[in-house]
Design a protein that fits this description.
Number of strands: 15
Helix content: 25-40%
Shape: globular
Length: 335
């Protein structure tokens, strides 16, 4: 190796965001710590966290550190390139998938050739599941699983879940996961998604565009968990539809004051009002991979874009009226 070649080996291509626009730059390739894995990223996928981060909003600051240059992206699938000295359960060359933490201390972005990941925060990708689908199947199913099972304490069988935004990325995962966990699902979605949501396993589907009084369709004390994926329901008004020990879970509160009032209203009751921030957990990724393999979980891919065309991918991601699934970014060979 000559010195310039060695220096080149220590650099990587990455997307950074300048004035909310993507640019390709060369930056330092990360080095894994003793409990970390260096992953060569093959695919990433876009999600709703990107916009607030690049627009530097308050919410954006909660899911990624404000850095300059600003690297973004959370989802990834790829190949293990190097393992830290204390990592024993992954070897070089294994195909893996996961997502980076949604945290104010996250500085990396998966819209890069390499990321370093804690060894308990990713999982092995099964051969039967494609790389692009794996990258598209991280944050959203984990949010749904952790909201229903961990925060919502959904009963093992015979539960009843209300899912608002059931046609969206998190909502459609939640419909399928609730069903796999043995629960009945009532879903609220827009007209264009009613057929899909029924097909995914919802027992009752409420078309929010054609139903003036949505709450009038529900029975008080009906639900074990109310999962409000877009955060648009009033926590204060919806809590009466929970069973005595029911849980309302909101991953993206639209109205913090209403959420706090809801918490106040349920303070002296066994009902609870909760938020959720998804956490990358190896066991949960493994469960999702199993569901993908046995077709219990279906995740649709809308389109795949080379990373050099990241701006077009972002445009598609924001085109909610036409988009029909996940927007995936090809990193390996895509620059």
């Amino acid at each position: 190796w000559t010195i310039p070649q060695i220096l080149l080996k220590m650099k990587m291509n990455a997307i950074c965001f300048v004035k909310a626009k993507p640019q390709v730059i060369q930056t330092d390739k990360p080095t894994p710590k003793e409990d970390e894995i260096l992953v060569k990223v093959h695919y990433s996928a876009l999600d709703t966290a990107l916009e607030p981060v690049i627009q530097k909003t308050f919410i954006g600051g909660m899911v990624h550190k404000r850095t300059d240059p600003l690297f973004c992206g959370w989802h990834f699938s790829g190949v293990v390139e190097e393992v830290g000295s204390k990592v024993s359960d992954f070897q070089c060359g294994i195909e893996v998938f996961g997502h980076l933490p949604y945290s104010s201390s996250t500085t990396q972005g998966s819209l890069s050739e390499y990321v370093t990941v804690k060894s308990d925060a990713l999982a092995v990708k099964l051969k039967s599941v494609e790389m692009d689908l794996s990258a598209a199947s991280t944050t959203e199913p984990l949010t749904a699983l952790q909201a229903l099972r961990d925060i919502g304490k959904l009963p093992k069988q015979g539960g009843h879940v209300l899912i608002n935004g059931a046609g969206g990325q998190v909502g459609s995962c939640a419909v399928q996961i609730a069903k796999v966990l043995g629960s009945k699902v009532t879903a609220i979605c827009s007209t264009k998604d009613t057929d899909k949501v029924t097909e995914l396993g919802a027992t009752t589907v409420i078309d929010r565009k054609k139903t003036p009084d949505i709450l009038g369709q529900l029975e008080p004390g009906e639900f074990d968990v109310i999962f409000d994926t877009p955060g648009k329901l009033s926590a204060r008004k919806i809590s009466k539809f929970l069973k005595p020990k029911g849980v309302y879970v909101n991953p993206s509160p639209d109205d913090m004051l209403d959420l706090l009032l809801g918490k106040l209203f349920t303070l002296f009751s066994p009902k609870s009002i909760s938020t959720i921030m998804v956490e990358p957990k190896k066991a949960d990724f493994e469960q999702v991979m199993q569901w993908l393999e046995d077709s219990s979980l279906r995740i649709d891919i809308d389109s795949v874009h080379d990373i050099k065309n990241c701006a077009a991918a972002m445009e598609r991601q924001n085109d909610s009226s036409n988009k029909k699934g996940r927007v995936v970014v090809k990193v390996e060979g895509g620059f």
